[in-house]
Design goal:
The structure holds 3 protein chains of 3 kinds. Chain A is mainly alpha-helical. Chain A has helices at 6-27, 40-61, 69-99, 119-131, 154-163, 165-174, and strands spanning 108-113, 135-141, 146-151. Chain B has 3 helices and no strands. Chain B is elongated and about 50 Å long. Classes of the chains: A mainly alpha, B mainly alpha, C mainly alpha. At the B-C interface, helix 1, helix 2 and helix 3 of B face helix 1, helix 2 and helix 3 of C.
Chain lengths: 177, 104, 89
């Protein structure tokens, strides 16, 4: 990440600074909500904090200028809705397996490969796998897009190995099919 | 109690139920990997449900915004932490439990 | 409404006590780390509920900080056990 051009570095620093300053204003708004407390000293405290964070970590938030960020964000919203529903289903599934007196579990470890390569896509898929019924990501190899997944029973393992609904949805969101 | 309070109470009761289920799973399941299933899912949804109940009780204010940040943070952080512990255990060579073995 | 918050807080403390069993007796260090992570995330919610009981909004800031610290602590413990060191010298 160290070999970025000057323009890209300035761009990522400006974006990080704006994001951090807006975040600071939102977090401290209940202290300085009354208008006359918005004086110069309070604001300069926030600017100094945002500057420190920007200098330390401007490479983390924006690593490079993305392509079609707006379209990806638009596609992410329906995916998040679907994901929320899957989380509710997953929780009921695990709660059923915990409460059932015989504990119907048959754990196994499965492996599969995906077409995803970028960090955001891999992180989204890994966290989604962890939050959907009966599966947790163990290991990810970013070079080949390979996933090791611990599954609680046979049915959730098949959902990842055979149906591949989630891989297709994430690949559609990040356009890496 | 008014209508808003009743809705908030329902959300928080659901969250408490899921948290109890997660703790029971942490005690009941046979090995480390399956225990993380219980804590990674039930606890995440339970905590977020309780925070959503607090948000509904609070109404529109900056406090609600902070609680929203907190719930988003939990949604991202809890699976990541689970994943990190599990990866450490798998790399170190902890064998997963198979059906029919004794519990450990 | 304060009764609801009190009841929820008591339920959270009860689940923390249940998880304490794994933290103390759990076979192997990984069970203990998992239990400590679970207790940490439960304490976040407990802080929020306490803030609503005492009507002090400051507790929510504390819980935000606590969430970040708990996450970093879990990551560091997992990393230490995985590699035998926290960062390469």
């Amino acid at each position: 990440m160290g070999f970025k051009s000057k323009g890209e570095k300035a761009f990522s620093m400006i974006v990080t600074f704006c994001a951090m300053f807006i975040f600071w204003v939102l977090l401290s708004a209940w202290i300085i909500y009354i208008p006359q407390h918005y004086d110069l000293i309070e604001i300069s405290k926030g600017i100094i904090c945002a500057l420190i964070v920007t200098l330390i970590s401007h490479e983390l938030l924006v690593s490079k200028r993305g392509e079609k960020v707006l379209l990806k964000t638009l596609r992410l919203i329906p995916y998040l809705g679907w994901e929320l529903w899957q989380i509710v289903l997953a929780t009921f599934d695990v709660a059923y397996r915990v409460i059932h007196p015989k504990m119907p579990i048959d754990p196994r470890i499965i492996e599969f490969e995906t077409t995803l390569r970028s960090d955001f896509a891999l992180t989204t898929l890994a966290n989604s796998i962890t939050l959907t019924p009966g599966t947790i990501t163990i290991l990810v190899k970013p070079e080949t897009g390979k996933f090791w997944v611990h599954a609680l029973a046979e049915k959730p393992a098949d959902a990842l190995l055979v149906d591949k609904t989630m891989q297709r949805k994430v690949a559609h969101v990040y356009m890496e099919e | 109690m008014q209508g808003v309070d009743i809705i908030a109470t329902v959300f928080m009761a659901g969250g408490a139920f899921f948290m109890i289920t997660g703790a029971a799973g942490l005690l009941r399941f046979p090995d480390f990997y399956t225990r993380l299933h219980a804590t990674g899912k039930c606890d995440t949804l339970g905590e977020v449900l309780i925070i959503v109940g607090c948000m509904i009780y609070q109404g529109w204010s900056f406090l609600t915004l902070k609680l929203l940040f907190l719930s988003l943070f939990i949604f991202i952080v809890n699976p990541t932490g689970t994943h990190a512990i599990m990866k450490a255990a798998y790399v170190t060579g902890l064998k997963p439990w198979k059906k029919g073995e004794a519990r450990r | 409404m304060i009764e609801t918050f009190l009841a929820i807080g008591m339920v959270i403390i009860f689940t923390i006590l249940l998880s304490l069993y794994r933290l103390v007796l759990g076979p192997g260090v990984f069970n203990q780390i998992a239990a400590s992570n679970v207790i940490g995330t439960k304490v976040i919610v407990l802080l929020v509920v306490i803030g609503f009981i005492f009507e002090r909004p400051m507790f929510i800031d504390i819980s935000l900080l606590y969430a970040a610290l708990n996450f970093i602590a879990t990551l560091l413990m997992a990393r230490y056990l995985e590699r035998g060191e926290i960062c390469k010298a």
